Amino acid sequence: MNRSRSILQCxxxxxxxxxxxxxxxxxxxxxLIRNYPNKIQSSKGEVLGNYYWDSTQSDSMDxxxxxxxxxxxxxxxxxxxxLFCHAPPHFAYFDKEKECRVCKETxxxxxxxxxxxxxxLNFWVQATRVYCPKCxxxxxxxxxxxxxxxxxDYLDIDKLKEVVALYLTQGNYEKAKYHLTRGKKLRQRxxxxxxxxxxxxxxxxxxxKGNISAS
Length: 215
Known about the structure:
Strand order of the largest sheet: 1-2
Shape: elongated
Number of helices: 8
């Protein structure tokens, strides 16, 4: 490993640190090179120990100085549990500000969430969060609706109710009433399910008129 550059800028605290203040990271790198040589290869045959070390100079790799790791500003990562190839692994995790792809609002990709993604779920290290929590929740709802509507059985009352509940959460009352009406038509007029579905349709109509609040 090339040790000629002894001053590094910690990407967690943005402070200049002498190599003696980055002992934990140095040991992580030595451990990876020493015990997992199959992970230390590149398409160009480079010695990735030097490549990773050089990456600390260009702010293209996640690691942290000893102080950040010890005071909890950063969490130590475990590259041996991560999926990486031509991109450096995460030697440490720290909170990152991101811009949501949908609403363009700023949100925080937390260090604990990153640790869960890469060390436990084994996502590729290049993966990152692109949606804020609100937009991510909305996307999950849309994905779930699409899944449910794929050959939806309107006689399956639980799935029908889930579809309707998701539309109500989005404030899409027309879609909610549409699916309730389709489900109601397949039932006997005097059945309990028919009566309940009809009651739900009427309640949604009252919500739209502003006579009652959505709950």
